[in-house]
Amino acid sequence: MPRKTSAPSKSAKKVYRRRNPLVKASISQLTAEIQRRQDAIPALNRKADDLRKQLASVELELKALGSTAAPARPATKIASAVTKSASTTTKSVGTATKSTGTGKRTRRGKGGGPTLSDRIVKSVTDAKAPIKLRELVATLSKAMGRPADKSFLVQVSATMRRLVDSKAVAQPGRGVYKAV
C-alpha cells in the first residue's frame, strides 16, 4: 500500500508567511529585491578587502613587536561562495582550517589535546586484559571529565568501530577490545 505524504499544515504555512515577507511579493518586487542585493555585493566586497588589509597591517605590527599570536583564521566556505558568485574580480578566500604553522591540517581534541581516538587507543593499550566497551566508556568519561551517558557511549562505540576497521584496535569478541 503506498504511503501517504502529508502537505504542510495551514498553521505551518501561516508561520512561514509571517516570517518571510517575500512570500507575498510580486514578481517585479522579487526582481527588484534580487537586483538590490546584487548591487550591494561590490560594496561589501570592497569593505571586506579593506578589512583584510587592516587585519594584515595589524598582524605585521604584532609580528614586528615579536608577538607569537596565531594569525587570524581564514574566512569560511560561506564567504568563499559569496565572493565566487560576485561578478567582480575578487580572490576566493578558501576554506577554514586549523593552523599549526606548518600549513598542514591537523585534528585535535578540545583545547588542543588528544582526540577521542587517541584516548581510546591509549586506554586499550594500558589495559592489561581485553576491555569491555562500558568499562572503556567509564574510564574515558572520568579522564575527560564528562558524563558517561548514552550519547557518549554511542560516540565511543562509533569511534571504536572505525579503529577496528583501521586495525588500530583488535576486537576478539562482541563488545570486547584489546590492543593490537
Q: What are the SSEs and their pairings?
A:
Elements: H1 10-19, H2 27-64, H3 77-85, H4 116-126, E1 131-132, H5 133-144, H6 150-165, E2 169-173, E3 176-179
Antiparallel strand pairs: 1-3, 2-3
Helix pairs in contact: 4-6, 5-6
What would a concise description of this structure say?
The chain is mainly α and 180 residues long.
Folded structure, characterized:
The chain is built from six helices and three strands. The longest helix is centred in the N-terminal third of the chain and has 38 residues. The protein is mainly α. Strands 1-3-2 form a three-stranded antiparallel sheet. It has two domains: about 70 residues, no CATH class; about 70 residues, Arc Repressor Mutant, subunit A, CATH 1.10.10.
